[in-house]
Amino acid sequence: MNANHAQLSVNLDAKLVQEIKTYCEVYALDENDLIQDALREFMVTRQAKVDGLISGYAEMASINSQIAAEFNECECEAYAHIRTVDLS
After folding, report:
1. What's the pTM value of the predicted model, to 2 decimals?
2. How far apart are CA 88 and CA 86, in angstroms?
């Protein structure tokens, strides 16, 4: 193992291990390369989804702030009305 590689031990379902072995045999692939490529792709795809969620929440924060500001005056008016009714 060269200096750019580290070892990570994981437990996989026996059926999945057999599927990996079979796939690698059929397509003449190294198991380590297959797993490394699959994990890299998974992580890139996952990060893209997370980035999309973050972006969406950031956009919604601005919209929600505008909505809250628009209804603040209405809430103040309703609260003032309730206070005058309670004082009667």
Report:
1. 0.61
2. 6
